[in-house]
Amino acid sequence: MPFISAEVEYPVLTCFLMGFSRRLTMALGGQVGPDLPDSVITEAANIFVGVNALLLFGFFMVLLWAHLRLSRPWDAMMIAVSPAVITTGLINWDFMVVALTALGVLAWARNRPVWAGVWLGLGVAAKLYPLLLFVPLAVLCFRSGRLRQFWLALAGGVASWVAVNLPVYVLSPSGWLYFWTFNVDRGADWGSLWYALSLVGVQVEDVSRAQSVWMVLGTAAICALLLLAPRRPRWSQGVLLVLVLFLVVNKVYSPQYVLWLLPFVVLARPRWRDWAVFGVAETLYFMAIWGQLDGTLSTGAGGSGPYMAAVFLRIGVQLWIAGLVIRDIFRPEFDPVRNPQWNSRHALAEPLLDDPDGGVLDRAPDAGWMRVVPWLR
Q: Per residue in 346-362, pLDDT tens?
């Protein structure tokens, strides 16, 4: 039983899904115990994998359903056919949090801030990264004078997160805290920039502190960009920048983390060329991490050159996508969402759209207090 009789490195809602899958496996005939023969254990493992595959496929359908109801439903095809879905979809339970996050984005686009917060709060209860979505949302709501809607979303998020976490904390405070202490205490791990640097002889003494410093500085820079840009950026653009920052400086990059970023690559930069480059880099990293773990990718001298190259390529492509988004923020005519008629001969098609999935932010003018901003620019 997660949290009660076993320490688990995942948040509460993910552990609920794990436990639910376990109970379904046992209901379908899977047996669990220390003295069972190998054949029985193998059968139970196969049932468990099948149960989880069906459940995660359901969350994948929810993800696609949500994107099909946004302003550019055809872009959902970029998610549906992404190689990341095939390669990483069954590594972990991340499709649940990705689906919950998509429901939060859809609710915000439909001017339902409370429900947006509820879905995002449930996402935070499954994995921590949906919390990052509130950062650019706060800045953009402040810039447009829509802080009431932001506070409603935040209240919905806090309420749903507390509703899921509080019972577990009451039952087992130490089990509930294990997720937080595990992630604070861990060092540089597979896939991270810090781990790749250690392979080339660059040792960072306190990775947790380095990560925190870069997150604070990078987030401050992104917030300043969202606030001071000549035209208010789209919410998905701000989310992509914050997610790229988090994934680049994080202490670990598990292969399935690409699923966190994929929907916002599609929302912020829906170009098939960019999608293809992003998919190639992530797929090469997917192959490199397993080859490195298996020992088949190491050079004859025991080096890790191909693996390090895959890590740096993946980071470079993520930063390249972020750079394109920053260019789109300052040159909205290059934004595929704001200027869907863009082509090389007609660089500007009027009128430009604003933020079709921005909910109350769409076509919202800057608030009166933004009059002090021009001299900052």
A: 555 557 899 999 999 99
Q: Is the pLDDT of residue 259 over 80?
A: yes
Domain boundaries, the chain: 12-372
- Is-contact 318 257, C-beta < 8 A? no
For tokens 């500085």, the residue is 217
Residue that is written with structure tokens 């007609």 in the block: 346
How many Å from the N-terminal Cα to the C-terminal Cα in the chain?
55
Look up tokens 């870069």; give the residue: 214
| CA Rg value for the chain | 22
Q: Are residues 220 and 284 in contact, defined by beta-carbon separation less than 8 angstroms?
A: no
Phi, psi values for residue 2, rounded to 5° = -55, 140
Which pair of structure tokens corresponds to residue 275?
């999608």
Q: Single out the residue of 134, 98, 72, 102 nearest to residue 355, CA to CA.
A: 72
Q: Is the peptide bond before 351 cis (omega within 30 degrees of 0)?
A: yes
Residues 78-114: tens digit of each pLDDT:
999 999 999 999 999 999 999 999 999 999 999 999 9
Name the amino acid, one letter, at 242.
Answer: V
Cα torsion for 339, 340, 345, 350, to the nearest 10°? -50
Alpha helices in the chain, H assignment, sequence order:
12-27, 38-68, 76-80, 83-88, 94-109, 113-126, 134-144, 147-171, 173-185, 193-199, 207-228, 235-249, 258-268, 272-294, 305-330
Cβ-count burial of 90 within 10 angstroms (0-12 exposed, 13-18 middle, 19+ buried)?
middle
Structure letter (DSSP) for residue 6: B
Backbone angles phi, psi at 186, to 5 degrees: -70, 150
DSSP state of 186: -
